[in-house]
Amino acid sequence: MNFDTPSSRSAKIADPLSETSAAEEVGFRKKDHANCSAVLFDNLKRNPDNIAITGPLGTLTYKALCEEASRWGNALANSGLQRGSRVALFLDDTPAYPAVFFGAVRAGFVPVLLNTQTTPDLLAFLLADTSAEIAVCEAEFAPEFTAEIIEKTAIKTIVIANGSGAVNSARFIHADDFVKDHSTTLKCADTSPDDMAFWMYSSGSTGRPKGIVHLQHDMAYTAASYAKRILDLKPEDRCFSVPKIFFAYGFGNAFTFPFTVGASTVLMPGRPEPDRVLDMIESFRPTTFFGLPTLYTALCRSDGVESRDLSSLRLTISAAETLSEDIFSAWKSLSGLEAVEGLGSTEMLHIYISNRVDDKRLGSAGRAVPGYDVILRDKDGKETATGEEGVMWVRGDSSAPCYWNRPEKTAETMVGDWICTGDRFVERDGFYYFQGRADDLIKVSGQWVWPLEVERCLAEHPNVHECAVIAHQLADKRMTLRAIVRLRDGVTPGKAETRSLQDHVRQALLPFKYPRIVDYVEDLPKTGTGKIDRQKLSALPTSDLAGA
Fold first, then answer.
1. Alpha-carbon distance 56 to 50, whole Å?
2. DSSP labels for 350-393?
3. Which of 14, 283, 293, 302 counts the highest number of beta carbons within 10 A?
């Protein structure tokens, strides 16, 4: 497929996967999915009057949302963009997001979902990397699009959504003016299943974010595999994803899965403070709730949570990291539901390993989701035996074919039709247990230590609200472990507390594994996807009280 774009003439991308037995297992036919806007627009025939989206900024039926999407698609098409041009989306979770996204892909353009917590220098990099000529941003974020940011990009027009942000340049236009007088119907572009559909960026937790390209059929595959086999949503369901739409996990939860079956999605803009999330559950009565371990921790320890009404929920999902036993049990006590844990990635678009409601193992990521092949390989690339640790490789028809403009990273990760996750696992009885990243092990006092093991141990201490454990190099070049801890409210940091935490690790694990350095923070920095930002943690000043 060829796209005539400012940055790349004749940019050809090929899907590495041919027909697989995994696709046959879930009854998926790629040829039936030529344009991913069908995920939304198919509802015009089957249930146009059902609620598609609801939330603090209003409610739209499927008919109304498709009309808004059509207006956006027509406006983009009439703006001079060429087929396959990227459109940068710097949006919060509001009705504008699905309208712009689905309008763009239906018109043959490629929306790029950007993290709204992106720093100015990184925003400049991302905009340049996409070669987008049009960006759509929240009024709240419009001031971030300064002349300095966009001067080295291809941006010509910035459309301001959800407000009347200051228009101080000819580049800016309000959304109402941009889509004004455009038709509420839109013919679908003649794309093919393997055409480029949209991009997301990696969280950048281990380096510069990478542009992850997804194809037109990928959304439908995640719906046929994970959503159908694990969630089993019905039209009467109402999904509430706290993780944002620019995160692949939130994207599937809020768009792909509810829209595929004609269910509804609850959109919450703004920060996910525990009280706001609980208010949303009580006000909008979702049936299916998607969170992260950091969110479940905050909810379970929120003041007054015991009196909140969670009775609308029938299914609660957690992903990205493993829930501690303490939080798993606390959430079950509050909601009456056991969180169903899974593991996915932006490269695979959603979850490919998951527990089930009626088949789970606490502490595991779960079993391979139908539709995905999963194997563990040793350092020589050989498949490991049951019970032996190995790096996880995954294959399925939702996999990204490449990182944009990153051939070396593509070659490292996308090998044939497999994706190398870089995560180490052990498989027992079909369930996979996370053992850390492939390069996570460090040598402390001559012995190998896995920081995540220590982190999980510390998280079980009754005074710890949240923590992270990272490698730290001392002045004499020796390596040690450093714990960054947010204590529970009312607990005072100090030497006595540090000793208590260190002794907890000494007694629960082996003595040499305790963190020599313990630093306290009011909050742990997070990436836009809700994961702990370990790059920022490494940059935090340390007490450097080593040698304890």
1. 18
2. SEEEE-BTTB--TTS-BEEPTT-EEEEE-TTSPBPPTT--EEEE
3. 293
Q: Which two tokens stand for residue 60?
A: 């739209």
Question: 10 Å Cβ neighbour count for 117?
Answer: 13
Question: How far is it, in rounded angstroms, from Cα 236 to Cα 233?
Answer: 8
Greatest Cα pair distance, the chain, in angstroms, is 70
Q: Which segment of 74-83, 140-149, 476-485 scores lowest on mean pLDDT?
A: 476-485
CA distance 448 to 239: 43
CB burial class (10 A; 0-12, 13-18, 19+) of residue 287?
Answer: middle
**Per-residue pLDDT at 165:** 64
Rounded Cα gap, residues 374 and 352, in angstroms? 9
Specify the residue for token string 């979702």.
286
Distance CA 61, CA 57 (A): 14
The DSSP element (H or E) to which 339 belongs, if any, is none
Distance CA 290, CA 15 (A): 30
pLDDT band at 118 (very low <50, low <70, confident <90, very high): confident
Secondary structure (DSSP) of 450-501: -HHHHHHHHHTSTTEEEEEEEEEE-TTS-EEEEEEEEEPTTPPPSHHHHHHH
pLDDT on residue 293 = 86
Rounded CA-CA distance 84/107 in Å is 9
- Which pLDDT does position 2 carry in this prediction? 34
Residues 6+ apart with CB under 8 A from 243: 249, 250, 253, 290, 291, 292, 295, 529, 530
CB atoms within 10 A of CB 157: 19
DSSP secondary structure letters along 194-222? TSEEEEEE---TTSS--EEEEETTHHHHH
Among residues 343, 376, 375, 373, the alpha carbon closest in space to that of 361 is found at 343
Token duo for residue 376: 């563990």
3-state SS assignment for residue 89? strand
Q: Rounded to 5 degrees, what are φ and ψ at 536?
A: -70, -35
Chain segment 53-107, per-residue pLDDT in tens: 999 999 999 999 999 999 999 999 999 999 999 999 999 999 999 999 999 999 9
* Of 72-86, 95-109, 433-447, 511-525, the least confident: 433-447
Predicted TM-score (pTM) of this structure: 0.84
Q: CA-CA-CA-CA torsion for 211, 216, 222, 225, nearest 10 degrees?
A: -140
Give the Cα separation of 84 and 13 in Å (integer). 12
**How far apart, in whole angstroms, are the C-alpha atoms of residue 45 and residue 47?**
6
Which residue in this structure is represented by tokens 């905009």?
127
